[in-house]
Please model this.
Amino acid sequence: MNTVVILPTYNERENIKTLLDSIFDVWVNIRGHSLTILVVDDKSPDGTSEVVKQYRSKHPNVILLTKEKEGLGSALLYAIAYALDVLHAKIIVQMDADLSHDPVSLPHFIKAINSGADFAVGSRYIEGGSIPDNWGWHRKLFSIVGNGIVRFGLGYTNVHDWTGGYRAYTEKIARYSRSDLSQYQGYVFQIAYLHKSILRGAKITEVPIRFTDRKFGHSKIAPSQYIRDVLGYITRQRFTQIVTGSFGKFLVVGSIGFIINTAMLEVFVHFGFHPVIGSSFGAEFAIISNFILNNSWTFGSRKVRGFDAIRKFLQFNATSFGAVLIQSGAVATGSMVFGVSFYRWFYLIGVGIGLLWNYTMYSKVIWKK
Ligand code: GDD
Ligand code: MN
Model:
């Protein structure tokens, strides 16, 4: 099977030759996988590309791509596109080129893919994996806490290592990456790539890896930029999920209900009815509209039908009445404690609590899983 190993380099002159040699050494024991190594270098000023060109003269299956300096994510995307379009890769492996990622793990990555994984993630935080012993406690803590924030922040806790760059994936996963990852040009690419793949249903397998510190050259990561990118990514993803998820729909349905309620009130008053009658009818019409729309759209996947729908509709009326009580309670309490002139503030607080009440009742009681 056509396998491409991508090595992104920026100033790795002292590391790249050793790494290429040891990948070839290891590959001797990997059967049934033809190997192409793709070095993607951002015009390293230290002359990394010269070393690779020299190496290439004896190893034609090493290819050098050269581009402007744009960041790790851009380099990886560029190389992935080349691996797919020009080399027709079936499996792509990516690893750091500073000898932090040991090629001895390569067979485990290939095995994971051959056993059915779409995406094999090198993991330092599972049994058999490790971060360097010689790291000071603060660096260890930073690494562990950082990964924990991503892991729990994105909500996929069965993957333990989100930030690393030692991975293998199938052609199918690599093709996905091209549509929506170009905005992640830096190190945050690693997180976004894994996350988007999971959202698309990729089967993930973790491969334990022992991460070691580089001996030559230095890291190119810019910590403050990286932290900003990562927190920004998590926040945006979570926010989008909330707005486009059932809570967003619930808010849309509620707004439609509010418009119906208000319109009915005005129509009734226009035809000479007392506003109390108008707002009661308006409220009930809004409740009916809310029930129908929430049942068929917001919680459409848990839709209730027939007799069950009637029972749920009565329940829905009861919980809606609960929201009315909360709202009135908030206004009453506020007026009593701070004086009547503050009623608008407490009305808003009441509406807010009422919204949360309704959403909780709908998702946990009426349309419970
Ligand atoms: N082409 C290219 N362009 N390569 C780059 C660039 C770039 O702008 N920036 C970094 N690289 C290459 C490096 O030459 C190295 O081979 C690899 O990407 C990783 O870069 P390091 O500079 O060694 O990063 P690190 O060791 O601090 O980062 C490690 O942790 C990150 C976060 O956990 C790596 O494991 C990263 O892959 C990981 O995302
Ligand atoms: Mn490194």
